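quick one, 168 residues, struct below
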Amino acid sequence: VEAQKRVGLEILAYCLMPNHFHMVVRPETDVAISEYMHWLLSTHVRRYHRHYGTTGNGHLYQERYKNFLVQPGAHLVRVLRYVEANAVRASLVLRAEDWTWSSLQRTASDSRPMLSPSPTERPMDWLDYVNDAVSLEELFEMRRSVIRDAPYGDAEWVTAIAKEHNLE
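---
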């Protein structure tokens, strides 16, 4: 919540896992993601080490965060689903809504980050959609975008957005 107040960044979905987290965000500026992640992660590391008395004992995170552009519409809906279903794929819960640490479980009365309205409407049967198995092809395409920091969307959109953002 503190990071969200400091940096102009809309949070569309998130899922905190035991050893990593996923977020779908919409930055207001070109540097918002970098500023947000820097403040969030460095503040978390300092607070963690202070709380557990482990200052000087090394890193908490294995590598730098990864990010990629996502085409609005069906591709964004797939990414939102992927994030909110992460605990199910990791066999931590049977149904995504049972995982306390995700945006799927967020209520208006809790202190977790507020979600911004999505630019793409989620299906009416969102819970069923999130809990349905994701195809291997869909998983492969998304993970390829994560690994390569490559845009995720239709081929034509990916080509155009890659050129626009010098990601060829």
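Strands lie at 9-16, 21-27.
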